[in-house]
Amino acid sequence: MGFTRYSGPASAFPGKETWKDFETIFNLNKAEMLRTGDSHQDVGRIWNAVVEAAKIGVEERVIFCIIMQESTGNVGVGTTTDPGNKPTGGLMQAEESPAFPGKHNLSQEQISAMVIAGTKHFKANLKQLDNADTATTIYRALRLYNSGSINENNLSDAKGATASYVSDIANRLQGRTN
């Protein structure tokens, strides 16, 4: 099933009642993670890391969908730069995240460190808004996470980042894979 394109304000994106549960989303994406070169152990450790990072105050399914959007769950993903030219790395391509380019069969500690760094960054975006666990706040925080700024009238206004970022994650939250 292909992705539906959403744009406009957060209210134009699908509500949480359309989102699948974490286990369903995770299972739908296992094969894609394994295709990156991840071992079955890496995939299991990603699950553990997401559950651990959720204690920071971000839903497991949101954390995991950011992982899939940023790195396809590839624990050995390389480092890139954000729109501000700062290096971003790890499963969630976050600033100050450890990265292990080209490596697989990582320890739980290494995988958790990547996911916790990205989750802390996303949580800071939530706090910058109203810190509510609502779809509209999450979508707005996703735009901040990807581009560092937000046009409240159009979450596809990427300011040099990925225009479809929020839309793609909305699709992932509904259980779609690309």
From TrEMBL:
Domain Transglycosylase SLT stretches: 53-158
Q: Which residues cross the membrane?
A: none
Give the Gene3D superfamilies listed for this entry. 1.10.530.10
Q: Which InterPro entries match?
A: Lysozyme-like_dom_sf (IPR023346), Transglycosylase_SLT_dom_1 (IPR008258)
Q: Name one Pfam family in it.
A: SLT
Official protein name in the record: Transglycosylase SLT domain-containing protein
